[in-house]
Write a structure and sequence with these properties.
alpha/beta; 9 helices; globular
């Protein structure tokens, strides 16, 4: 048995925080896990900026409601799910993910949750677990799944390296320069070919 584990933002949907940065005109919110390896540092910085600008969870959710999946993402997911098991492993939050999952046909997603105060301001987060993507790979492998992992950011690297097979998808140049040994695909057709090869190896 095999299972495909995919990142969400940058792989299937646009980056939520970049879309929010464009809407609010706050360039510092454009930073993502493609730029900052430490997720706790990244999120603490985001929450500080949100407080400074009095921006709430509702403000973010209103922008998310306008986001559409990347071109071809839904069809790609449907094709993969017709071949094998698939789960999305993401460091996003359930408070963000639902409208995006609906557009993608409700694939399974393992992600985190937010802590908000009485004013609907972000004041913390509840990680499912530290390094949750890699630990999910460990869990699937302990159940005798062969694992394929793919993503585009620093926080995807441990799961890609731990999986039986995997690749980067449309990763930025800084990650490609630092990890030239990892395979790269930039089109869903090539992505699908990598997964088909993995599924047929058994």
């Amino acid at each position: 048995m095999e299972i495909v584990c995919l990142d969400l933002e940058g792989v299937l949907v646009p980056e939520i925080w970049i879309a929010f940065a464009e809407k609010t005109g706050i360039p510092e919110l454009r930073l993502t896990t493609r730029d900052v390896p430490d997720y706790n540092v990244l999120m603490n910085g985001r929450m500080k900026i949100l407080r400074e600008h009095n921006l709430t969870l509702k403000d973010i959710q209103e922008v998310i409601s306008t986001i559409k999946p990347l071109d071809g993402a839904k069809e790609f997911l449907d094709e993969v799910r017709s071949m094998t098991q698939l789960v999305i492993l993401s460091d996003t939050f359930r408070e963000f993910a639902s409208p995006l999952m609906k557009q993608l046909g409700w694939p399974t997603i393992l992600c985190n949750s937010l802590i908000v105060d009485e004013k609907n301001m972000l004041c913390g987060m509840k990680l499912r677990q530290e390094d949750g993507k890699r630990k999910a790979i460990d869990g699937f492998r302990s159940m005798n799944f062969r694992t394929f992992a793919a993503g585009d950011s620093y926080n995807d690297l441990t799961m890609i390296k731990k999986a039986d097979a995997g690749c980067l998808f449309r990763a930025p140049s800084n990650i490609l320069d630092e990890y030239p040994e990892l395979p790269l695909v930039t089109e869903y057709s090539d992505f699908l070919a990598e997964i088909k090869k993995f599924v047929n190896e058994e």
